[in-house]
Amino acid sequence: MPEKFKRGDNKAKTHGRGLNQTVYDVAIESPLQLATKLSERLGNQVWLKREDLQPVFSFKLRGAYNMMAKLTNEQLEKGVICSSAGNHAQGVALAARKLGCNAVIAMPVTTPEIKWQSVERLGATVVLVGDSYDEAQAYAKKRAKEESRTFIPPFDHPDVIMGQGTIGMEIVRQMQGPLHAIFVPVGGGGLIAGIAAYVKRVSPEVKAIPGKKRGKLGRFEKGTCLNLKARRRKRKEERRRDWIPKAKKKMRKTKRKGKNQVRVVRVLRSSPSWFVCTLLHQRVVQRKEISSNNTISLLSVMETKD
């Protein structure tokens, strides 16, 4: 980040696409839309970052293209490979088509047909392998070594995290009024790592709060939600494990968080009173206080090696 855009400087909020121009070769600057009815119910202004309007209907395109655009011509000639159950796969496929390189996508056999067909339409080669994401990832990494392809991780890479961070840059610029908190869905952790790294740098008072699905929600006519987690667990206990459809296996969680986003979140500078949710390898969220002495910029975060 340029030195003139110091932490807390209001000029940093209007400096445009200074963080990363690359992602906009394929991605759009998605609009920030006011959720009127939700805002009325909660008594607060709730804004939605419409990443569903991206060419592949997901933010994953940002990180994938940002990493692939930095590959050498030799690496692009050898091709890329990734493992995904859908969104990241389409992001890599579109990025590969834009850059003119060959892409192989490893997807679990439980992946819905509509998803892997969407990837094939973008020009990538789809390989259905394994009953879970972890098995597909193991295959992709092994093949990457055998064929000297570049493995494009869905979240655990500094360039991928930086690509996702452009969302935070857009939010800060698009939000005209006061911004108090950004709620970010957490899967692998790359999205919140990128957003928090940028937002906490230019607007330290803004909180980045991770959110994760907790059981299934049943919605009724009046909008009331009922947590069906206990009921679902009871049904699963009544059935034998062999009877569970294979389609549910794709819902298995990855075994660990990526080391890069864990490091990014941990080193973010903040006031002593602010607490950041650190993503641990056990896939749980724990509050840890970040010392105000850990002054570090986004670029230096990304360039730091383990």
How would you sum up this structure, described in words?
The chain has 306 residues and is an alpha/beta fold. The protein has a domain at 217-251. The chain has eleven helices and twelve strands. The protein has helices spanning 36-42, 60-68, 73-78, 87-99, 113-121, 133-147, 158-174, 190-202, 229-238, 259-267, 298-303; strands at residues 32-34, 47-49, 80-83, 103-107, 125-128, 150-151, 181-185, 207-211, 217-219, 225-227, 275-279, 285-289. A hairpin with a 5-residue loop joins strand 11 (275-279) and strand 12. Residues 1-18, 216-231, 240-254 and 269-306 have low confidence and may be disordered.
List the uncertain runs: 1-18, 216-231, 240-254, 269-306
Strand order of the largest sheet: 5-4-3-6
Helix content: 25-40%
Distance between the termini: 21 Å
Task: Give the SSE layout.
Elements lengths: L31 E3 L1 H7 L4 E3 L10 H9 L4 H6 L1 E4 L3 H13 L3 E5 L5 H9 L3 E4 L4 H15 L2 E2 L6 H17 L6 E5 L4 H13 L4 E5 L5 E3 L5 E3 L1 H10 L20 H9 L7 E5 L5 E5 L8 H6 L3
Parallel strand pairs: 3-4, 3-6, 4-5, 7-8
Antiparallel strand pairs: 1-2, 9-10, 11-12
Helix pairs in contact: 2-4, 2-7, 4-5, 7-8, 8-10
GO biological process, one term: L-serine catabolic process
Family: Belongs to the serine/threonine dehydratase family.
Pfam families: PALP (PF00291)
